Amino acid sequence: MKTGLYFGSFNPIHNGHMAIANFMREFTDLDEVWFVVSPQNPFKNKQSLLADYHRLEMVDLAIDDTPGFRASNIEFHLPKPSYTVDTLAYLFDKYPEREFVLIMGSDNLVNFHKWKNFNEILRYHHIYVYPRPNTPKVHLLNHPNVHITDAPLMEISSSFIRKAIGKKKDIRFYLPTRVWNFIKEMHFYEK
Description:
Layout: E1 2-8, H1 15-27, E2 32-37, H2 52-63, E3 69-72, H3 84-94, E4 99-105, H4 106-110, H5 118-124, E5 127-130, E6 146-148, H6 158-166, H7 177-186
Parallel strand pairs: 1-2, 1-4, 2-3, 4-5, 5-6
Helix pairs in contact: 2-7
């Protein structure tokens, strides 16, 4: 079974994430997409993150019971900070019957050479890349395991959503309804 791993802070998960995951599930050869909630991205400031279990709950609410989608807390149980190469090794041991593919935005591909053991990831895994606005071209685009998709360009970001909520803006249509309701109920991202 071919499983796409969509890593992210999902702080919060939004309709852009959902549209990309849907595209990858419907328009590529992936059988499933797992939303891997990252407890700590080595390149991001942890202070702005909601608690891990709140972000996992939002992913669960967003995907509901959508066939082929799954929320994963696999990185919650691994050493911090989380490194993708270590997560992939763990998943390979746990699910040897699966082929894992990384799903990432072109903006992440720009810094991919800075990731721990990035050459090992490229050697053993394919990467399905979706376009992000204003991303420079990188040499990895020519690598045989890097596949650029025609996914729609999404200009929505979690940081935009957090800032908008902090300014008391009604942005309910940027988020899955159940996620919006949870954020309002919990008063997340309000200042």
